[in-house]
Amino acid sequence: MATILEVRDLNVSFRLHERSIQAVAGFDLTLERGETLAVVGESGSGKTQAFLAMMGLLARNGRATGNVLFEGVNLLKLSPSALDRYRGRDIAMIFQDPMTSLNPSLRIQTQLMEVLIRHQGFTRDQAARRSVEMLERVGIPEPAKRARAYPHELSGGMRQRVMIAMALLCEPRVLIADEPTTALDVTVQAQMLDLFRGLTKDFGTALVLITHDLGVVAGLADRMMVMYAGRPVEVGPVDDLFYDPRHPYTFGLLQSTPHVERVGARLVPIVGMPPSLADLPPGCSFNPRCPFRMEICVRERPALVPRVRGRPAACFYEGELTVGAAIAVLEAADPETVPT
């Protein structure tokens, strides 16, 4: 498959109270045509900020450095007007909060039509018909009626589907979906996942799925990137990471998630809280919470390089990750945190 998006050494920082806070550091990514990549991690891990930086949508106090190559063009070097030729048409993003992404003073159809008129050269009549068709495609009942509504007249789930419809209108080559199924019920969620599958299969669209839902990841993604404290810590095929995780944080996420194949098994939580990006611990950022911490983990930051069995993981520990070892550490720290 051909590489459509290549990111090298992306760094994102924000200026706050006369100091700079590093939100994303050393972010590398290669995305192939038709591939689905899931990016997972706790809130504040830098998932969304990395992709907002690629789209040129950081807050005013944000700054991005590195290289973001879309079909050979470095997006970080483009002016806002030049970048507008790619945003919405070639690269689209579905935002997590549709209420703040939709214009409250414009009807839904007007906002959808604008995308087609601007990027595809549609007439107003063509854009109006296409907008209603796309609303129907994403499962909105009475699409012609809903198209005439204002955002506040729709439920949260419907607004989320409107955002998905808007992103799909131009059949983008890269689609970035930030928690696209959060506000949807299970039935509609399944419809959206089928829609995403069709987009990658029929049009070769590369899909980036930013999510907390490992069930969605298992059912849709080809590869998974795990982020912690602003850095990728493990990357690889979904099946490999699910069945043989090589980073303790990936292992912790999986062990704290219910699974039908582990009925009756203990859920082992990850102790503690993610660190403040303004005050990261020395060495590996995960070391205060890691059951497999070693002395070197406190002194040095591990690089994301191939280690055990050739899979990239930012971890010095190369032994087997086991529930028994994790529970032993939890019991030593606080027996009450260990589920029975």
Can you put this structure into words, describing what you see?
By secondary structure, this protein is an alpha/beta fold. The chain folds into 3 domains: 1-90 and 172-243, P-loop containing nucleotide triphosphate hydrolases (Rossmann fold, 3-Layer(aba) Sandwich); 101-170, no CATH class; 245-337, no CATH class. It is 34% helix and 22% strand. The chain has 13 helices and 12 strands. Helix 4 (108-120) crosses helix 5 and helix 5 crosses helix 7 (156-168). The longest helix has 18 residues, at 186-203.
Strand content: 15-25%
Domain count, please report it: 3
Number of helices: 13
Helix content: 25-40%
Which structural class best describes the helix and strand composition?
alpha/beta
Stretches with pLDDT under 50, minimum 5 residues: none
In CATH, what is the homologous superfamily of the largest domain?
Answer: P-loop containing nucleotide triphosphate hydrolases
Computed CA radius of gyration, to the nearest angstrom: 21 Å
Topology:
Layout: E1 3-16, E2 19-32, E3 36-40, H1 47-54, E4 62-70, E5 73-74, H2 80-83, E6 91-94, H3 98-101, H4 108-120, H5 124-137, H6 143-147, H7 156-168, E7 174-178, H8 186-203, E8 206-210, H9 214-220, E9 223-228, E10 231-237, H10 238-243, H11 248-255, H12 295-299, E11 305-306, E12 312-313, H13 323-333
Parallel strand pairs: 3-8, 3-9, 6-7, 7-8
Antiparallel strand pairs: 1-2, 1-4, 4-5, 9-10, 11-12
Helix pairs in contact: 4-5, 5-7
